[in-house]
Records
---
Amino acid sequence: DTGVSQDPRHKITKRGQNVTFRCDPISEHNRLYWYRQTLGQGPEFLTYFQNEAQLEKSRLLSDRFSAERPKGSFSTLEIQRTEQGDSAMYLCASSKTGGTEAFFGQGTRLTVV
Amino acid sequence: GENVEQHPSTLSVQEGDSAVIKCTYSDSASNYFPWYKQELGKGPQLIIDIRSNVGEKKDQRIAVTLNKTAKHFSLHITETQPEDSAVYFCAAYMDSNYQLIWGAGTKLIIKP
């Protein structure tokens, strides 16, 4: 399967714990995006990478959120000191440089209890 | 900033009939308009897209139209089938910030 892969698919954590999600984009895609989606809403942009450089960050991305793409391949999204309001589906997408078609992974559903 | 409005929020049609979902966008600099289908528990799947230099695009039972002057774009699904049941999202994209701005989604229900 050469699609976008996200791990884990589901994560339940206690409030205050740290969590980390991984995204493996389509191999030839230089651009990688993270989105957050809550029930009944469209995805909201969080951040964007061009290769290893993080070029855009949404105001939604508080200081507790950090994303990396160290070698321009896979990416991680870490949430520190999780809050109940962080419960959502976290989606990763990738696209080619100069391309606009973004392909999404299956998402990681986070539940903070 | 860019804003995308999508209507209706829920659409129920008889199997075999057509379905139309409409979106409007606010920023005239938007130049790419994809449509995504999302099934329960899955990520959005790109089903069709259109660029600002094109007025209409068709792929089998699915078509998208764009009116740049009115800042409207629409998704048309003909001969609907049960597997078309899902949530459909429209989005608008600008090269300037690499972001997709999404509509709130339309839940499409196909009645047998």
Note: Chain A is about 0% helix and 50% strand.
---
Amino acid sequence: ELKVEQNPLFLSMQEGKNYTIYCNYSTTSDRLYWYRQDPGKSLESLFVLLSNGAVKQEGRLMASLDTKARLSTLHITAAVHDLSATYFCAVDIDLTGTASKLTFGTGTRLQVTL
Amino acid sequence: NAGVTQTPKFQVLKTGQSMTLQCAQDMNHEYMSWYRQDPGMGLRLIHYSVGAGITDQGEVPNGYNVSRSTTEDFPLRLLSAAPSQTSVYFCASSYFPSNYGYTFGSGTRLTVV
């Protein structure tokens, strides 16, 4: 059974600082995603990572994927208060030729303080 | 606006009552799925569908029923609500393979008393 572990579960950081959220998963994946969720809201897609060595950046966020280590990271550069949210990684595995299963990590709640 | 529409946004049920959570998408996605989100547990897959007439169980299917009569709609039925089903429910859809990611609905917050 696929397990997806994120750490830390909670992260309090000051504005302007850098930090990394880690996502480890237990079996070979076909795709990996990062989502953002604000309180009481739905999930917003941040990144889709499809292959080993993939790196994507959007603003102060950068995501990478190492399929050999079964590890993805979400790096935050010079954090600002607007980045406060819960971040989820999710691993997608093809079950058949027409279906896949998405498994989520437990999420990392990020709080950026002044 | 194209996307995934869920109704209702909020619902309170009494134990033993039944109800249907609605989900509709207008992106012609083959794949649709239902998740529940509970504090500290991320999102867990309840049921999924790869096309009209085809459904399968996910990680936590007990107490829920689904059907898919059209590409657009994927309702989730609670047969006899229990307090353990108090949760936030999200519907998601995507193409297969999901190389562009999944699109999530706005969620339904369900409380069973």
Note: Chain B touches chain A through 29 residues (CB under 8 Å).
